[in-house]
Design goal:
The complex is a heterodimer of chains A (281) and B (562).
Chain A: H1 10-17, E1 30-32, E2 53-56, H2 59-67, E3 73-75, H3 79-86, E4 101-104, E5 109-111, E6 115-117, E7 119-120, H4 123-133, E8 138-141, H5 144-147, H6 150-158, E9 162-164, H7 180-190, E10 193-196, H8 201-208, E11 212-215, E12 221-222, H9 231-238, H10 249-260, H11 268-274
Parallel strand pairs in A: 1-2, 2-3, 4-8, 4-10, 8-9, 10-11
Antiparallel strand pairs in A: 5-6, 7-12
Helix pairs in contact in A: 1-3, 8-10
Chain B: E1 6-7, H1 28-37, E2 44-48, H2 53-61, E3 65-70, H3 73-82, E4 88-92, E5 104-109, H4 126-135, E6 137-148, H5 153-156, H6 184-191, E7 195-204, E8 207-213, H7 214-219, H8 225-238, H9 247-256, E9 266-271, E10 280-283, E11 292-298, E12 301-307, E13 317-318, H10 324-333, H11 337-349, E14 363-366, E15 369-372, H12 383-400, H13 409-412, H14 416-424, H15 431-444, H16 454-529, H17 531-543, H18 548-561
Parallel strand pairs in B: 1-4, 2-3, 2-5, 3-4, 5-6
Antiparallel strand pairs in B: 6-9, 7-8, 7-9, 8-10, 10-11, 11-12, 12-13, 14-15
The chains are: A alpha/beta (281), B alpha/beta (562).
């Protein structure tokens, strides 16, 4: 029932998977994880109400949430996996026709009234490193918070990269681009590599879509970044195999399956019951 | 009147050990053990303490001369009347009153040594009573003696204070006896090297329910067949005790610690060698049917057989593995749904489902297959209904024991959970099976305790408190959602107002433009009406004569149109 649940159209995807109205998806009786992180699946200061269920992608956020004193977790797998299941052909090209690198710049976050957090870092240096590393055409994906900052967008355009934006995740149910993940999936299925300057959701999505991953470059600073979960140092300790310019693909796929909760995905009928989406007359 | 019973010192009258809360030693499993154990006729046998007439008759049939000692005069007379055989001698009096009698080849004290003294006897402690009994046995006698366990789970979990646990109907000389053995090791030490087998015993108010070899009980672990035998039997024993907590919880912990034999309600010690005995004796099917399950454990598992009448004969071989229920409960507690799903899928694919009802707590993984266990409830149903019944029962036991699991309350409180598990087993959208499964499970359910244990009551109250807190949280969450939605509506309202304002401005601009247009048109008409403009018009027409050819074409065109 939290407005974060509709971020990136995730709630819509799950409603469609369950055979329900995805234009106006039914309410989820709790919180749906909307991005990968090193903690419990939400930011350290996230508000939860008593008795709410937390629908997480994988088992690790459940365990971490439990250690924070939270109960009522249900592990369901990432909605992106359900979208992949429903859209097996979206953006798909033959393997030898995949080309280029879809490069995700670590992004800030948005909220009305100029709240949210911006990123700060050395973009020029990062551009040099990308050019030095990538051998095929690079498409830079900026979240709209950076896309709408000309000083950032132009720096990548001027460097000769194609710069794209997949849309907004929305706020208070407004402005959500319900095709966000669809567009992202299509782009990933055309790319040969996926890269970012931080290990983040897009990398896991990319690996799941068949890309070879890379994580390198200036990790940049996020305004107001809460280090409660351990930040980049913890990522290096726990997911060291996912960092670098040449990552072992089999290892990356195994880790990705774990982090996106592939083994936890379930049939529509089961998901409907877990969300209490069946009519009770 | 000539009395038909003999007297020794220490009899009690009026008194009975046969009509109180605790029945005299008896029951089908105990009789089955004696049937195996007792030698052929020819020996002299002594039975000490209250035992059922059936047991007395069995002992009488396996001996040349049987002596029965009971402390109550009326009990002795009743026994005499029930067993009139001339080879049976019934004596009333206390054990100390029989001191000095010639020793016997077989001595049976299956009721233990707590109901063998009278009110006039000295307050002998347990070792002293055992010494009296031992003195009545030959050196190579077969001796069977029961020992009540004061460290039994049923005692530890007894809600009553120690002083209120014994009624006047179970008079005994000492209730605080530091010399009484209170563990299998202490029993073994007290009985010495002639101890050949020790059973952990479980009874229903004195009536034998299950006998389980103490070593097997100590070696078993939660969910294995021996632990199930013990847990079932403990539940029967506990049915007569107001409890602090479910004994099953303690039984699981004890089994995990290898202490199941140590917390049994009692032990039955066998000294000397008689006939071959089995690892376990338990009811086969309904206890009232009288059939006895005989189970023997070897390195590769259990060998099962049934003696007497039983509803169905279980499999002859059974692996000594954890039950499907134990595995499923463990996976649920770990919130390991994929693991749970894998076992459910195996259950759904198991061909043995068609063979009859399934109790998951008595179903054991056997390689890629499953083996039905110690019980085999009757009932011909189709496989989906059988599995649904098994899952309903699993759900009931999960909830009743307040176990951890990963499913939300709206699933647990409805048929959704069973439907989900059936789906994991490959049986989807089968509401008929779910409904029929509920009916079957209700038929299999053990009767609920009249008075719930304290832990269950407290847990229920805590559940209610949590549910109230969760509902308050839900209200908060819904209000929060309404707040978000309000914000969303405000945003949309602002957008609508902005569009309206834009529309209004555009309309005003349009109106203003129309006004200007009207003014301009009027001005134009006014200008056209001026003489100078008429002169200008005539002049323009006359000027066309300057181009004769064009003028002629225009005249021709006009004439043609006209």
């Amino acid at each position: 029932m939290h407005h974060h649940n509709v971020y990136y159209g995730q709630q819509h995807i799950l409603a469609r998977y369950c055979g329900l109205d995805d234009e106006f998806p039914p309410r989820i009786p709790g919180y749906l994880q909307h991005g990968w992180n090193v903690g419990c699946g939400w930011n350290p200061a996230h508000e939860f109400f008593d008795g709410a269920w937390r629908y997480v992608w994988s088992d690790a956020p459940r365990r971490r949430g439990h250690s924070l004193g939270r109960r009522n977790h249900a592990v369901i797998g990432a909605p992106m996996l359900y979208l992949m299941d429903m859209e097996p052909d979206l953006g798909r090209v033959p393997g030898d026709e995949r080309k280029g690198t879809l490069w995700f710049l670590f992004h800030g976050w948005d909220a009305p009234g100029h709240r949210g957090g911006k990123i700060h870092g050395d973009h020029a240096r990062l551009i040099s490193e990308i050019k030095e590393t990538e051998s095929e055409p690079v498409t830079i994906s900026l979240y709209y918070t950076e896309y709408q900052r000309p000083e950032i967008r132009h720096s990548y355009e001027d460097a000769g990269f194609e710069v794209i934006c997949f849309g907004r995740r929305g706020w208070h149910y407004e402005g959500t681009d319900r095709q966000f993940l669809h567009k992202l999936l299509a782009a990933l299925r055309r790319a040969k590599r996926v890269a970012s300057n931080r290990l983040a959701t897009a990398i896991f999505y990319g690996v799941a879509a068949g890309c070879h991953p890379a994580v390198y470059g200036d990790t940049m600073e996020l305004e107001g970044d809460n280090p409660a979960f351990g930040g980049q140092a913890r990522i290096a300790r726990l997911w060291g195999d996912m960092l670098g310019k040449d990552i072992d693909l089999a290892t990356a796929r195994a880790i990705t399956d774990e982090e996106l909760g592939r083994a936890w995905t379930m049939p529509p009928a089961e998901l409907r019951m877990l969300f209490d989406w069946n009519r009770r007359d | 009147m000539t009395d038909s019973v003999l007297y020794v010192r220490g009899e009690i009258q009026p008194w009975t050990d046969y009509a109180g809360h605790r029945a005299p030693a008896g029951g089908a499993p105990l009789l089955a053990l004696l049937d195996d154990l007792l030698p052929d006729p020819g020996s002299r046998t002594l039975v000490v303490g209250p035992h059922s007439p059936e047991l007395i008759e069995l002992a009488a049939s396996r001996t040349g001369a049987l002596t029965v000692l009971v402390r109550s005069v009326s009990d002795a007379r009743d026994l005499r009347a029930a067993v009139p055989s001339p080879t049976v001698t019934v004596i009333t009096g206390a054990l100390d009153g029989l001191a000095g009698a010639p020793p016997y080849d077989v001595v049976i004290a299956a009721d233990g040594l707590d109901r063998v003294l009278g009110a006039d006897s000295p307050a002998l402690d347990w070792p002293a009573r055992l010494a009296l009994l031992s003195a009545l046995a030959t050196e190579d006698a077969v001796v069977l003696v029961a020992v009540a366990n004061e460290f039994a789970l049923t005692g530890l979990y007894d809600r009553r204070p120690v002083g209120e646990r014994h009624g006047d109907d179970e008079w005994r000389p000492l209730h605080d006896d530091p010399a009484r053995p209170t563990s299998p090791a202490q029993v073994a030490a007290a009985l010495g090297p002639r101890l050949s087998r020790l059973y952990a015993t479980f009874d229903a108010a004195g009536l034998s329910h299950t006998l389980l070899d103490a070593a097997a009980a100590a070696a078993t672990r939660p969910g294995r067949p021996a632990a199930r035998l013990a847990a079932e039997a403990l539940a029967v024993t506990a049915a007569h005790t107001p409890l602090l907590a479910p004994v099953a919880d303690g039984a699981d912990a004890a089994a995990r610690a290898g202490l199941l034999a140590a917390v049994a309600p009692g032990w039955l010690a066998l000294l000397g060698s008689g006939g071959a005995t089995h690892t376990a004796y338990a009811p086969a099917g309904s206890p009232s049917a009288g059939g006895v399950l005989l189970a023997d454990l070897d390195e590769s598992g259990w060998t099962l057989s049934v003696r007497g009448q039983a509803a169905a004969v279980p499999a002859s071989r059974l692996p000594d593995t954890e039950s499907a229920e134990t595995l499923l409960f463990r996976l649920a507690a770990a919130e390991n749904v994929p693991g749970f799903r894998a076992i459910a899928a195996r259950l759904g694919a198991w061909a043995g489902l068609a063979d009859g009802l399934v109790l998951l707590d008595d179903l054991y993984p056997d390689g890629d297959d499953f083996a039905r266990g110690l019980t085999h409830p009757a009932g011909g149903e189709d496989a989906p209904a059988i599995l649904a019944a098994a899952y309903h029962r699993l759900r009931d036991r999960l909830v009743r024991a307040h176990r951890r699991h990963p499913w939300p309350p709206w699933m647990v409180d409805s048929d959704d959970l069973v439907t989900t598990w059936l789906g994991m087993s490959g049986i989807a959208d089968n509401a008929v099976a779910v409904k029929r499964g509920r009916e079957i499970a209700d038929g299999l359910a053990a009767p609920r305790a009249g008075e719930p244990d304290l832990r269950t009551v407290l847990a229920g109250a805590e559940d209610d408190r949590r549910r109230a807190a969760d509902l308050a949280g839900k209200v908060f969450g819904l209000e929060r959602t309404l707040g978000f939605r309000d914000q969303s509506l405000r945003t949309r309202e602002q957008e609508i107002r902005a569009l309206r304002e834009e529309l209004r401005t555009t309309a005003e601009e349009l109106r203003a433009t129309r006004g200007e247009l009207r003014t301009a048109t009027a001005e134009l008409l006014r200008l056209h009406a001026l003489p100078v403009m008429r002169l200008h018009s005539v002049t323009r027409k006359v000027a066309k004569v300057r181009y004769p050819r064009q003028f002629a074409r225009a005249i021709k065109h006009r004439l043609r149109k006209g």
